[in-house]
Amino acid sequence: MQALQSRAQARCLSQTRPARVSRQGLVVQAKKTADGPSIAVVGVTGAVGQEFLQVLKERNFPYKSIKLLASARSAGKQQEFEGETYTVEELTENSFNDVDIALFSAGGSISKKFGPVAQKAGSIVVDNSSAFRMTEGVPLVIPEVNPDAMSHVKIGGGGAIIANPNCSTIIALMAVTPLHRLAKVKRMIVSTYQAASGAGAAAMEELKEQTRDVLDGKEAKPVIFPYQYAFNLFSHNSGMDVEMGYNEEELKMVKETKKIWGTSDVAITATCIRVPVMRAHAESINLEFDKDISEADALAALAAFPGVSIIDDRSKNRFPTPLDATTRDDVYVGRVRRDISRSDAKGLELFVCGDQIKKGAALNAVQIAELLLK
Q1: 167 noted as active-site residue
Q2: Which of 12, 167, 272, 353 is an active site residue?
Q3: Start and end of every Semialdehyde dehydrogenase NAD-binding domain (predicted)?
Q4: Range of the domain at 138
């Protein structure tokens, strides 16, 4: 077991170093080419919209042209991309007439209004909001997990909408799916510790400002959230089902997991908490399987799964943290251990961290767009 953990730790460290170098100035460029698709980024001035541009660069995504779209308030702003200066355009119903792939991250109401417009114009919409995730006939895709769900969608084959899952669902299923393939998951209990990034750039700024204020002895002033965020934590700020006692974020994890896995034969419950972390979510996951599963087999399955890295060094009490995952592509998994509350070998515990803006949003969307090129 210790040898496997050491190899897994080495794999994790070897994979994270290149990503950090690229953030420190390695020249990475998207590939502008005459035979690439035309792209639109909707909500380009937001945190995820800006990350879309960064991920397109990092992954050398081929494109013929790119259109940067936002609200009337942001229209006219200048945006640098790949050595060129673009003017942000106002999002209108005429924005998609010449667009092959439209990456949406402007909120559910905008997606509901303009997603069908783009689809009708022949664009393939990759939508980051919750607007279409549970709509029948709309693929809900994590490329490493269920790429076949969108196999019927092709550029030039007519407009379509593909939904990006919720960030917490993506991060959880990147870690749990390889284990689910090894031994079927019967029950999953998830507790999330979600960063400010999940609520956007304004929430991240609020955390910064409140932290400064509290450290200076001033009163923190909640604006984005109903409670003081700095040095505090509270139930996720999504809408609450008063009768059930679950918030929308928790119910998303339940419903989306079943759709992505294509089964209702799994029991899921979640507790989602907002914590004063700037970027990258953490999740504690308890799993019950239909047959015995060992720690060693679980670690081997995780190590072999694309997009997953392991930090699991018990001797040094070294496991994933949000800072490990910040700005990284991979989801980090550790604390893989037997559930000692059970008398059998059918239960495991694990701890997972993933960058909400990266794999939890922009990266997953761009990977969906990459599948359209194949």
Answers
A1: yes
A2: 167
A3: 38-153
A4: 25-164+362-372
